[in-house]
Amino acid sequence: xxxxxxxxxxxxxxxxxxxxxxxxxxxxxxxxxxxxxxxxxxxxxxxxxxxxxxxxxxxxxxxxxxxxxxxxxxxxxxxxxxxxxxxxxxxxxxxxxxxxxxxxxxxxxxxxxxxxxxxxxxxxxxxxxxxxxxxxxxxxxxxxxxxxxxxxxxxxxxxxxxxxxxxxxxxxxxxxxxxxxxxxxxxxxxxxxxxxxxxxxxxxxxxxxxxxxxxxxxxxxxxxxxxxxxxxxxxxxxxxxxxxxxxxxxxxxxxxxxxxxxxxxxxxxxxxxxxxxxxxxxxxxxxxxxxxxxxxxxxxxxxxxxxxxxxxxxxxxxxxxxxxxxxxxxxxxxxxxxxxxxxxxxxxxxxxxxxxxxxxxxxxxxx
Amino acid sequence: xxxxxxxxxxxxxxxxxxxxxxxxxxxxxxxxxxxxxxxxxxxxxxxxxxxxxxxxxxxxxxxxxxxxxxxxxxxxxxxxxxxxxxxxxxxxxxxxxxxxxxxxxxxxxxxxxxxxxxxxxxxxxxxxxxxxxxxxxxxxxxxxxxxxxxxxxxxxxxxxxxxxxxxxxxxxxxxxxxxxxxxxxxxxxxxxxxxxxxxxxxxxxxxxxxxxxxxxxxxxxxxxxxxxxxxxxxxxxxxxxxxxxxxxxxxxxxxxxxxxxxxxxxxxxxxxxxxxxxxxxxxxxxxxxxxxxxxxxxxxxxxxxxxxxxxxxxxxxxxxxxxxxxxxxxxxxxxxxxxxxxxxxxxxxxxxxxxxxxxxxxxxxxxxxxxxxxxxxxxxxxxxxxxxxxxxxxxxxxxxxxxxxxxxxxxxxxxxxxxxxxxxxxxxxxxxxxxxxxxxxxxxxxxxxxxxxxxxxxxxxxxxxxxxxxxxxxxxxxxxxxxxxxxxxxxxxxxxxxxxxxxxxxxxxxxxxxxxxxxxxxxxxxxxxxxxxxxxxxxxxxxxxxxxxxxxxxxxxxxxxxxxxxxxxxxxxxxxxxxxxxxxxxxxxxxxxxxxxxxxxxxxxxxxxxx
Lengths: 367, 611
Prior knowledge:
The structure holds 2 protein chains of 2 kinds.
Chain A: H1 12-21, E1 38-43, H2 50-65, E2 71-76, H3 83-90, E3 98-103, H4 104-112, E4 125-130, E5 134-138, H5 149-158, E6 161-164, H6 173-181, E7 187-190, H7 195-204, E8 209-213, H8 214-221, E9 231-235, E10 238-239, E11 245-246, H9 257-265, H10 272-286, E12 289-293, H11 299-314, H12 316-326, E13 332-333, H13 334-345, H14 349-363
Parallel strand pairs in A: 1-2, 1-3, 6-7
Antiparallel strand pairs in A: 3-12, 4-12, 4-13, 5-8, 5-9, 10-11
Helix pairs in contact in A: 2-11, 2-12, 4-10, 6-10, 10-13, 10-14
Chain B: H1 2-5, H2 10-27, H3 29-35, H4 44-55, H5 59-84, H6 88-94, H7 97-109, H8 119-132, E1 136-137, E2 144-145, H9 159-178, H10 192-201, H11 203-218, H12 227-237, H13 251-274, H14 280-292, H15 298-303, H16 305-334, H17 341-357, H18 363-382, H19 386-410, H20 418-436, H21 455-477, H22 480-506, H23 531-548, H24 550-564, H25 570-591, H26 599-603
Antiparallel strand pairs in B: 1-2
Helix pairs in contact in B: 2-5, 2-13, 2-14, 2-16, 3-4, 3-5, 4-5, 4-13, 5-10, 5-11, 5-13, 5-16, 7-19, 7-20, 8-19, 8-22, 9-17, 9-18, 9-19, 11-12, 11-13, 12-13, 13-16, 17-18, 17-24, 18-23, 21-22, 23-24, 24-25
């Protein structure tokens, strides 16, 4: 694979493996104490959404494990697709009392250089990063059967496809880039649909291809497989520690998009569209959700938080409730998480320029 | 709500969440009827007839009717829910983009019923609402339209602010000017038992509206906020005697209240069946489900049927207990309408600005409320029907999105679908019913329809015209997907504004097209001050808040207002202000709220809760 595709990533996931297994004693957190304080986790999304549930999952356990057992509250500041809340967060004091739940939707505008973005993802100090795989599925009327990946891709290349997305610069670009790479050129894109609406429209048969996060898929869509309404085709894949794209640990028997490409075309994907796809993979899968501290937070505070979240993840009660939300993916922490965020949002200028041109040409939309 | 349930035993947590969810639509009637402030966006239609009833001194009756209708609606919704979960899936799946678009157009045609005395003004008001919906990011492309460079308008104007600005602010100002107490008679009038009897008398209306509410709650596309208007429009459309609507007709309270509660049961259907929320409040509920480890979806019906019935019974029980409690509280709480209004008003302003701030927790919320409130005040003065604007606004986003989605997916083939055709027929009926409705009478020479002193209404007309042209101009800047909606909505409004303007210019004598409440005799006016006087008070409050933060601003406002307007001794003013500050502080602590900050807060760390 082209080495430019996969900038060097740290051994984040190997480290995470070890970290999850052990509850690390508070050796780092010697001087940090939040006793009697109020810790706020800002969620730049509405109540009930993915990032909100993520933050609230952690909330009571963080209260238990942060040094001094502070009160932890969640404050929702929705707006602008999370841009508003993230902008406000950028101004927060780096005293460990304010954190933010960051999601793919926060990363994409930053990476694409949206002019309303006043925040700097790379200045933040991440505490924990939770990946979430994504799975691509279709309506069997398109001709895909789910048995042979090459036959399925060939069928999809011939079929008339309808795909839903929020807007021309949202996270669904990962799908559109993938379709283009796989030679699926007959795609009618319907904008203005949230992920919930995309799923509903799929079940109604009005769109016939869709992407979903692994968790949402298994909870909401998988049950329709039995009725023959849904055929899962491939997963986006999963960014491994060494930078390669591996199979999604939640669906180890399913091929990734890159594998599908290789089987159909006989070589690895390359070129600007492949680079853009990988960027979206990291933003959408590897760096899906995270908890971050503001710019300038001192190391010892970050370490105290990392410490606490490791204990949270190891807590058996948490594991039970979190299983459906966080899934079987390995978490990464602290500096390792920071490296992943850097990799995810660091789109090369040539790729960005290519992407801008491609969006303008396909959707007549200025990025 | 969410912070509390975590860690609870799943069945308790479920009961708590569902219980809380089900009864907000019952208790939100209190502010709507008593104070003309829509409690939630779902109870706006109740204000139209409920508040006039309160002003006539029949608050307890209105409340009694509302609660019993709510009770019926809620239990009906629960009953339908218990049956529907077994068969609703194919129906819900049949409601595709085409069907949703037709539903929305049907809802828009209901506006015809609510256009007040002058149909063209009503349609133009609806157009203003549609255009207001163009502000902010386009639903399809995400490009900001008419954001005037502000970060606040990246998103659309929040609905709660439009609701409060259109109804609450003008009513409060109007009451301050005209009446000593909310209730004209200063007394309570007939009690809640009479209201209960009204529900029985009009049982068929209540049943029909509950059915409408449940159905619309379950079907995708309409959203929650317009259902009470649909029920209201339906009851007006199907009544032979329509004159009394808007002035305190009890049927105008029964209809939206029944529909409102039934819709909660209806909205639970897709939420439980698909794990896909039918509305914003259901999305919250789903979030709660996940936190307590429940997985909604088809599996629930087969594997956890007992939990499903727990939900259903919680809905039913919550409605019964909630309505019962509210009924008993109705009489004592209705006594509020007999208190001197100048004492209540500053607190109400405080409450509505507080509520507005919860929309996006941004200073823009307060400023927008002020602007929309001023608009509402003048619309009320010049006879531009505010419900029409509200419906236009509520449906604006959905109109735009659904038309685009239908054509993108179907082109014109959506017309082949059976449900679409049925809805098309309903739309034709609705338009026909609207066109048939003619308001009566020759306007009097003096009074609101006078042809003299036309300057203020003309100015208002031109302000509306300029806004329309601004929207049109902005729409022309963008490529088609973003610009189509502002262009069409402004052109549509122009189509109504132009004939209106011509009629205003040509009419020489008193005419229905003229309307200015200032021209009417004021009767027993309390205070000879103008609308502008009160708007300036509010502006002053905002200015103080900008400097010293909302908490100080509103307490200073309450103090000053009580002192100047109500002539209450200093210590009582101080007490009032202090109580309100305490309330804000308690809410802030319990619900993790923040209040708008002023310049002072940037420099000085003030003690809680002044920060």
